Amino acid sequence: MQLRYLKTVLPPGDGLQKVTSLCWAANNSKMAAVTTDKVVYLFDDNGERKDKFKTKPADASGSANYIVRAMAFSPDSTKLAIAQSDNIVFIYRLGESWTDKKSICNKFLQSSPITCMIWPRGRDDVVFGLADGKVKLGMLKTGKAYTLYGHPDSSYVVSLAASPNGQAVVCGHIDGAIYRFTFPQEEGGAGLSSSQLVQHSSVPYALGWGASIAAAGNDNRVVFYDTNGRELQVFDYSNDEAVREFTSCSFNPSGDTAAFGSYNRFYIYTLNATRKAWEQVTVRVVQNFYAVTALSWKPDGSKLCVGGMTGSVDVYDACVRRHKYKGKFEFTYVSKSAVIVKELKSGKRIVLKSVYGYEIDRINIYKDRYLIARTTETLLMGDLESCHLSEIPWQGDGNEKFIFDNESVCIVYWAGEMTLVAYGRNEVLGVCRTEHVHPTLLSVMAIQKMVSDGRSPPENRTVLARLAYLIDPQYGV
After folding, report:
1. All CATH 2.40.128 domain ranges in the chain, comma separated
2. Contact 69/85 with Cβ under 8 angstroms?
3. Top-confidence residue, 355 or 117
4. Would you say residue 88 has pLDDT above 80?
5. pTM score of the predicted model
6. Between residues 441 and 16, which one has the greater pLDDT?
7. Which terminus in the chain has less CB density within 10 A, N or C?
8. Would you place residue 185 in the very low, low, confident or very high pLDDT band (cuts 50, 70, 90)?
9. What mean pLDDT comes out for the span 252-270?
10. How many whole angstroms separate alpha carbon 94 and alpha carbon 25?
């Protein structure tokens, strides 16, 4: 992993003005930063400041003696949740464009100060921790908050992290305990399950969940755990006088790279896929930055934002490698399983990512629009115009023939079989055998529309598909 300093999007203040939270919108369009001055600064994907607004106290007629503990964007990138120490979580509707009017659409008032908060992927509710040791679920549909669990000794909640798929959450407490709880698979299914995952060796102020669960605190040890709480690896800096306590943690979107913030420095760890072990690959020392209080990766994995004690927010370019393709496109490998494909002329970008975490070996682009990428186990297909991606299990030999005459469906012909895949779906539409695969001898129709299961944001799905092809020179179906 290579890190290159790009710019400072928020300059340091005259004194201590801690950056308390950084977060990116899931669609890569916005980044939010907030300091102890209670003002939320909004930036575009290039780090240009576009807007700002001052947060509100829980009691409009009362004191403004509070700080923003955490922020998180909704999965659809149109809302921003703001957790405050004056016992409240506000949900702001920001809209899709910079000119949309901001409004508060939900609020969750509690009897104890909010200490941390996350918005799990694919969910329409926020999870937040309280000073009294409880972890609660704020449901936007009902406007009510429900207790997920409470620490038996009411130990202060210091950190929260969601699993990459958003189906589970880990929570760190001031007594060192890390708990895990899982959401039911289906609405109306079995209730939440929770249990203590592990007793960490210090207060887990820095907690994250990617390919592993990682925690660190004031004993200067970074520990990686599996999902059952088994200790996988330890990086011990307790004998290094230059290292102080760890204060923040963030995994990249692929989950195979973790950033940990300390004093005047931050560390980068990467999962070695061959050895199946974590390795420290970079330590970035920034003098006079003081404690790294907030970290946030851009959802496409191309940038890391770093916030400090003086109010400064720096942006770093992050990539494994970068190269050009036929002078028209640029491939930026942000991890072994994720590549940003950028058209140099138009600036259009798409993130080509293996949903299974496999390493991407080769990428080809056809008709300056359609992407074909290979891993050892799968085949990835994408459309630069619609930004729809698909990945299917595949054991071909590299001699496949691809037909791109239909804008909704990719046709793959190999070993006498024709496989149809709709862009945006990680499954095969259909398979048939034929020796006649010329584009003029095929007809494919696919009807797509937005479909929602009621729990997740609507997504584009193929609801009807028809194929006409020749069985032999005389008969067709």
Report:
1. 321-470
2. yes
3. 117
4. yes
5. 0.85
6. 16
7. C
8. low
9. 95
10. 11
Burial 248-270 (b: 16+ CB within 10 A, else e): bbbbbbbbbbbbbbbbbbbbbbb
Q: With 50 as the cut, is the pLDDT of residue 477 above it? A: no
Instruction: With beta carbons less than 8 A apart as the criterion, state whether 192 and 186 touch.
Output: no
- Report the chain's C-alpha Rg in angstroms: 24
Q: In the beta sheet, which residues pair with residue 258?
A: 251, 269
For the segment 13-30, the average pLDDT, to the nearest whole number, is 93
Averaged pLDDT of the chain: 89
Fold of 321-470: Lipocalin (2.40.128)
Token pair for 265:
């420095």
Size (the chain), residues: 477
Q: What is the CATH number of domain 2-316?
A: 2.130.10.10
Residues of the chain with CATH 2.130.10.10: 2-316
Q: What is the pLDDT of residues 399-423, one digit of tens each?
A: 899 988 888 888 898 888 888 888 8
What average pLDDT does range 285-289 have in this prediction? 93
